Amino acid sequence: MKYVKMLSLAAVTVAALMAFVGSSTASATVLCKTPGTGETTGTICPSGWAYGSGTTIHAVNISSLKLDTTFKTTECTGSTITSEISTEGDATHTVFAPEGTLTFTGCNCTRTVLKAGTIEIHWIPGTHNGTLTSNETEITVTCSTIFGNVHCIYETTNDSLGDITGGNPAVFHSTAVINKKPTNALCSEESTWTATYEFTSPTPLYVTGHT
To answer: What is the value of pTM for the model shown?
Structure first.
């Protein structure tokens, strides 16, 4: 019986180690100045070609931005995303950018950014693309309705906002569902966010595996 328990414990330990190795490999991400070398699709960034810590990330919308809710669709004509890379990324870490700035202009409702939140970028293996994840971004939306002003707050919690397509320039296609915080009862529990941004810095930009 003791032998069986030891075997079970060993199996659990091996499974945990395999899961750790798998997650480490999946998180290996850098932002590269070139498409990369080493494979047919060239998805490994050459040594010295990664954008390092301190690099400014700046993106500008190239399409209208919509936040669809059950009571109203809010739309803006302008938006920018700005942050600075604090973690370059390596074999076991992904690219991380702390809270920067997020702006909106030309909106049909009052849209205020309470917190810009943090950004992580995760490489999609076999491509020059990556998934952008947002955490603790808070946006408040106030719209005039037949019921008076409706005030809603939506927050990201390690949510995938969409994919970055590497290139010169890179493009961020955002389609995401964002949950609301406790606010007006008329606010929908979830809102659908759609937007497209173009990176003005850094450029060119390719999301690749670690150096």
So the answer is: 0.79
Write the pLDDT tens digit of every residue in 18-45: 333 333 334 588 899 988 665 545 578 8
Vertex 49 angle, CA 162 and 167, to 5°? 40
Structure tokens at 171: 């493009």
Which structural domain range is residue 54 located in? Answer: 29-208
CATH label of the domain that carries residue 126:
2.40.160
Interatomic CA distance for residues 192 and 176, integer angstroms? 6
User: To which H or E segment does residue 4 belong?
Assistant: helix 2-27
User: Could you report how far apart the first and last alpha carbons of the chain are, in Å?
Assistant: 48
**Rounded to an integer, what distance in angstroms lies between the CA atom of residue 205 and that of residue 67?**
27
CB 147 within 8 A of CB 172: no
Provide the token pair at 55: 């690099």
With respect to residue 50, please indicate whether it lies within any of the assigned structural domains.
yes
Q: Is 129 helix (H, G, I), strand (E, B) or coil?
A: coil
